[in-house]
Write a structure and sequence with these properties.
single chain; 308 residues; two-stranded antiparallel ribbon; alpha/beta; Rossmann fold
Length: 308
């Protein structure tokens, strides 16, 4: 009676419903009709609706039963907490930060102060606030505070080209005595690029502000690029071997092989020393903290730093 009446139907007994439920599927009932010499399933809406009602009844009964026994309840809670609820994200409290040199007329909000603490103590940071939450002041305050504490010597702030001057103005509004170098469009023209990079490298400044397109013109060292490409090729070779071992589709292997050949082509081009560029590389700029505003424009960003 329980299997075919109380918790099931003639078309879908309780055992079938429980099996479907344990596999996270909604119970469905089909009729079969002969069509062109083969059986075609057709959903029986009425029987399906009745069976799904029984399925909900079974779920509710199980939920009532599972927590009734105090010993079982305690055991299950312990299992859940150990497996899924044992890691607590770190919280950052910046209430102790002094912000020496900051404009006394400006007071950062609590979430901004805590975000600065996260940047200082947490390493790589994503400032995923909504528009207007004050990410600019957070990056500026973090850069200046890290310089004051000796955690960095020179920060680079990469922003959209059209807001370079606005960002610099807000920086000086927050820290009027800051010593910052602000790039212009002319600074990254071919004839001026090397001179400006030399200024970044040799100047004793708190930070340099450049645009996205300008940042892309600052090369990484040959050694860094070579190691990065070789590491990516090694990862692809491991992926190809694993795909072949597990007998994945030929399409997957072909795509990985295509990516490998593309990287090997880039590596060969890099190794071609016929073109030598004497421009100062990123590593030679003396920049040890990087902040990127609107970082979603850099999906494949390789540099380590703080992203806003």
């Amino acid at each position: 009676m329980k299997a075919y009446r109380s918790l099931g139907t003639d078309r879908a007994n309780a055992y079938k419903i429980i099996e479907e439920t344990l596999n996270l599927r909604d119970i469905r009932v089909f009729d079969y009709v002969e069509q062109n010499g083969s059986r075609k399933p057709v959903l029986n809406k009425k029987e399906t609706m009745i069976a799904q009602g029984k399925q909900e009844q079974i779920k509710a009964a199980f939920q009532d039963w599972i927590w009734k026994d105090p010993e079982r309840r305690e055991q299950l809670c312990g299992l859940y907490n150990n497996k899924f609820n044992s890691i607590r994200p770190r919280e950052y409290d910046g209430s102790h930060i002094k912000f020496v040199g900051m404009n006394p007329e400006i007071e950062l909000r609590p979430h901004q102060i805590n975000a600065v603490a996260r940047i200082i103590y947490g390493g790589n940071t994503l400032l995923a606030h909504e528009v207007g939450a004050g990410k600019t002041y957070e990056m500026v305050a973090a850069a200046m505070e890290m310089k004051r504490l000796g955690l960095c010597t020179k920060s680079m702030i990469v922003v959209p080209n059209h807001i370079i001057e606005q960002f610099a103005a807000e920086w000086l509004q927050l820290y009027p005595s800051a010593n910052i170098l602000v790039s212009t469009k002319k600074d990254f023209e071919p004839k001026n690029r090397r001179k400006f990079c030399a200024r970044i490298s040799t100047s004793d400044i708190d930070a340099v502000i450049i645009g996205h397109s300008q940042f892309e013109k600052v090369p990484m060292s040959f050694k860094y690029q070579q190691e990065m490409l070789e590491d990516q090729i090694d990862e692809l070779l491991m992926g190809i071997s694993e795909a072949k071992r597990q007998r994945n589709s030929n399409f997957t292997v072909k795509q990985l092989e295509k990516s490998r050949k593309s990287l090997e082509g880039r590596l060969a081009k890099l190794n071609d020393q016929s073109r030598k560029d004497d421009l100062i590389t990123f590593e030679e700029l003396g920049v040890d903290r990087l902040f990127v505003d609107e970082s979603h424009g850099y999906n494949d960003v390789c540099y380590r730093g703080q992203f806003g």
